[in-house]
Amino acid sequence: MLTYLQYVKDGDSEMPQGVRAQRRERTRQALLCESRRLFSKLGYAAVGLSEIVSAAGVTKGALYHHFDSKTELFRAVLLQVQQEVADRIAVTADAREEPWDQLIVGCQAFLDASTDPAIQRIMLIDGPAVLGWSEWRAMNEATSGRHLVDVVNTLVEAGAIPARQAVPLIHLLSGATNEAALWLASSEDPSDLANARETLTQMLESLRVR
To answer: Can you give the pTM of this predicted structure?
Structure first.
């Protein structure tokens, strides 16, 4: 039997705390889902809070209960997108046994994911513009960038690359893959992705200690 302490006031009705928590989470997920759809379709600047709450079927008060501002909502959407890309990279890389192969297919997986127009708009175009380069970079390093650091360090330990090249390689690869992803976003040639993957593989293979 539920006790009084397990109930909380919600408007004119009372309900178990667990039910309220579930409803709050559904509201939050609806806001993330609809704002992500709108941000990816129209871009951050073209989307207003009124449009988001209308699409999500909630009030502005409900939005502000979860997010302090439109920027805070976008930050949550960006983190969601970046984590999904990181998960794709991890799944692809973990399917290979050799660390060098993990590095190559992980970088390729990033390029593949970045061809998704929704990911391009939110992660590569609006992300740095809305949050600033420093914060965007920190979020990137905490998600997909973390895999890059881990696999490069593994390669150093295995003697596959010199230790002095580890940090420069991490930054060079991060910059190169992000720039390639932006280029692919504006490309109209379907063969550019395959060419980018091939070039990336050749570039990485040239660094391997034989």
So the answer is: 0.84
